[in-house]
Design goal:
The complex is a heterodimer of chains A (243) and B (472). Chain A is an alpha/beta fold. Chain A contains 10 helices and 10 strands. Chain A is 37% helix and 27% strand. In chain A, the strands form 2 sheets. Chain A has a 6-stranded mixed β-sheet, sandwiched between helices. In chain A, helix 3 runs parallel beside helix 6. The longest helix of chain A is centred in the last third of the chain and has 18 residues. In chain B, helix 3 packs antiparallel against helix 4 and helix 6 packs across helix 13. Classes of the chains: A alpha/beta (243), B mainly alpha (472). Chain A: Pfam families: ABC_tran (PF00005). Chain A: InterPro entries: AAA+_ATPase (IPR003593), ABC_branched_ATPase_LivF/BraG (IPR030660), ABC_transporter-like_ATP-bd (IPR003439), ABC_transporter-like_CS (IPR017871), BCAA_Transport_ATP-bd_LivF (IPR052156), P-loop_NTPase (IPR027417). Chain A: Belongs to the ABC transporter superfamily.
Chain lengths: 243, 472
């Protein structure tokens, strides 16, 4: 961790929805080749941090730096062009477009130059999508839609992949498939992943490092294993306790 | 009444007895209902006294029609529907090879029919008789097809609800009318100019509404359409206000010959003598009409061609993605600002082309041609046809605009409803009924399915069950 330059550095970021402060000076960093998980209860500000990194909404104060570029005030599409790909909360696939068209939309940054090889890569990762290639996104099951959402993000050849609640509303078996796929991507290609999860156990087991967020601020951080072992984290997020 | 809900009972007994009984009830009910609406009319006589006038014959006809309709419905329609429901086989996947020749080549056949249409009319109705059919029917329908295809880019593909589309039509029309009458420029120079000007206004409209979607966008575009119309009415020095602009120059055949009988370049004077005598061509306004028909056909085909090509390009796909999910688009690196503006600009451009053509065809324009109702009709055609579907929109335009024109021909209705009956006054009623019927039966328009632009082996149309209702 130390000595490495962070790929993404979020420094003292505050984000507001109108007058309501959602993020209260958040510091998070993600190094190259890491999987970093952010866990927290409902309304802690996890998704807001994710969206703030993408520039919708913009941070009111603080700084977000990606590969040495200050992206705090950049418009969303320009941030995406720096190869920060996102699989947003609620998946947000294009329901009336086919699986293939959805993947094409993901590849629009490179003008389809690498489409064929990248699409093969997505299909080896998620063979289910290959069976559904000409099917419309909206007709896929929840798990398949999540795979499509991640696959679409991967088509952009990201340097940093942001995943917002990839396990939301999915059967445990599918969650395992998706987490395995993320681990595989990280191991074989060194893909850097920053994921937001409510499924604290799965996320911390997957991640190299983790952050715990409470009321718009990071309260704890450490390696995934340490956090899993931490009695406070266990009480709050793993054993059904309340924070 | 139990017979209605219980199919087996109804089929066991003869449907005719039940139908007759129901018809009687319907007749009684309609008699009660229409007695005061149709049967009696209060009018003033010469000495200003209120007297009751009776229309017993009309009332009898209406009641009889209702009874007959109910009888036919119960005796034939319901059993037929039941039989079809019982026989309905599981939906088979249709193989492309098994489809008939007509089905496979339906678009080519349609275009061929459109090209042959004036020739057919000419041969059946003669030179003068063809005028009405080619102009009122052919050209009129094709103008709306083109307008609806242009609006389809904005509403159907990009999903931006535009209620002021007629503004761009007006911009194109006035661009040609003003520049043509003031500077005497040719249509062929002014056609692209009108398109560019409309596209420019499309961008002007686009900028302030970039952040709006759905209802809010619709209201602003509606206001924009009205602003353009009010400017045209009030800016008298330039637009001549409500009086409009007349004497708009006709279109020439690429400057080779024209259609003014007095002009030295008149078509019959330019054509070789042998051709004129061979076909026994006489001076007539029909040549110009037929020329206009082919011109608007070409312009409409251009619109369709551009739409089909754009859908396969990144910008077209970005439009469709934008319609689906704007936030997802942005997070994929798509500049939604530019995407929206190009949709507005290109949609407006085709509106401008159609406007220039309209001005040239009419020879006279005033702001009355560009009222909100026009926008509503064009939008209705897009919605009826099925958002995004070119063939569906063409069918809808034919039914709506063609249907209105056909109503003018329905003179026999006067025999039924009296001499004062003017069928074309009921065109809006027809329009409304058609809208309701189509939206009940096919809530996603005539052609609700969407053809994917990218596929592995064959294009499988996306069933209309999954396309959204009403919205783009």
């Amino acid at each position: 961790m130390t000595g490495q330059t962070a790929l993404l550095a979020v420094e003292k970021v505050e984000t507001f929805y109108g007058n309501i402060r959602a993020l209260n000076g958040v510091d998070v960093s993600v190094n190259k080749g890491e999987i970093v998980a952010l866990i927290g209860a409902n309304g802690a500000g996890k998704s807001t941090l994710m969206m703030t990194i993408c520039g919708a909404p913009h941070a009111r104060s603080g700084r977000i730096v990606f590969e040495g570029t200050d992206i705090t005030t950049m418009p969303t599409h320009e941030i995406a062009r720096l190869r920060i790909a996102q699989s947003p909360e609620g998946r947000r696939i294009f329901p009336r477009m086919s699986v293939r068209e959805n993947l094409q939309m993901g590849a629009s940054l490179d003008n389809m130059q690498y489409f064929d090889q990248d699409v093969e890569k997505v299909f080896t990762l998620f063979p289910r999508l290959k069976e559904r290639i000409d099917q419309r996104g909206g007709t896929l099951s929840g798990g398949e839609q999540q795979m499509l959402s991640i696959g679409r993000a991967l088509m952009a050849r990201p340097k940093l992949l942001l995943l917002d609640e990839p396990s939301l509303g999915l059967a445990p078996l599918i969650v395992k498939q998706i987490f395995d796929a993320i681990r595989e991507l990280n191991r074989t290609e060194g893909l850097t992943v920053f994921l937001v999860e409510q499924n604290a156990f799965g996320a911390l087991k997957l991640a190299h490092r983790g952050y715990v967020m409470v009321n718009g601020a990071v309260t704890m951080s450490g390696s995934g294993r340490d956090l899993l072992a931490n009695p406070e984290v266990r009480a709050a997020y793993l054993e059904g306790g309340r924070h | 009444m139990t017979a209605i809900s219980d199919t087996t009972t109804r089929q066991a007994s003869s449907p005719y007895g039940e139908a007759a009984r129901q018809a009687l009830w319907a007749a009684l009910l309609s008699f009660g209902l229409f007695f005061f609406f149709i049967g009696l009319e209060s009018t003033q006589d010469i000495s200003n006294r209120l007297i009751l006038q009776s229309h017993w014959v009309t009332l009898a006809i209406v009641v009889a029609l209702v009874a007959l309709g109910r009888f036919l419905f119960i005796a034939f329609v319901i059993p037929a529907v039941d039989r079809r429901r019982a026989n309905r086989a599981p939906i088979a996947v249709v193989d492309e090879k098994d489809q008939s020749f007509i089905r496979r080549h339906r678009f080519k056949i349609m275009i061929a029919l459109l090209v042959l249409y004036p020739i057919f009319i000419l041969s059946t109705a003669g030179l003068q008789g063809s005028l009405k059919w080619v102009n009122n029917f052919g050209v009129q329908v094709l103008i709306y097809v083109m307008l609806a295809w242009g609006l389809n880019i904005v509403v159907g593909l990009a999903g931006l609800l535009d209620l002021g589309y007629v503004a761009f039509y007006a911009v194109g029309a006035y661009a040609y009318a003003l520049l043509g009458t003031e500077f005497g420029l040719s249509f062929w120079i002014l056609l692209p100019a009108a398109g560019i000007m409309a596209a420019f206004w499309g961008i002007i409209l686009g900028f302030p509404v970039l952040r709006l979607r759905g209802d809010y966008l619709a209201i602003v575009t509606l206001a924009f359409g009205e602003i353009i119309r009010l400017v045209l009415i009030n800016w008298r020095e330039v637009t001549n206000g409500s009086a409009g602009i007349s004497g708009i120059p006709k279109i020439t055949f690429f400057g080779l010959f024209d259609f003014n009988i007095s002009s030295p370049d008149y078509i019959l004077k330019v054509l070789p003598e042998s051709i004129v005598t061979l076909f026994a061509l006489r001076p007539s306004g029909a040549y110009y009409t037929i020329f206009l028909y082919y011109l608007i056909l070409a312009l409409a085909m251009l619109t369709a061609f551009v739409t089909i090509r754009l859908r396969r390009l990144p910008v077209g796909r970005a439009w469709e993605a934008l319609r689906e999910d704007e936030i997802a688009c942005r997070s994929l690196g798509i500049n939604t600002t530019n995407t929206k503006l190009t949709a507005f600009a290109i949609g407006a451009m085709f509106g401008g082309f159609a406007g220039a053509f309209f001005a040239a065809r009419q020879g006279f324009i005033n702001p009355e041609s560009f009222v909100f109702l026009q926008s509503a009709i064009i939008l209705a055609i897009v919605v009826l046809g099925g958002m995004g579907s070119l063939s569906g929109i063409a069918i809808a335009a034919l039914v709506m605009i063609g249907g209105m024109e056909i109503l003018r021909e329905m003179q026999f209705l006067k025999i039924v409803f009296g001499q004062s009956f003017t069928p074309e006054l009921y065109r809006m009623l027809l329009f409304g009924i058609a809208m309701v019927v189509v939206m009940v039966w096919k809530p996603r328009g005539f052609v609700g399915s969407r053809e994917p632009t990218a596929y592995l082996k064959e294009a499988r149309a996306v069933s209309s069950t999954f396309t959204k209702e009403g919205h783009g």
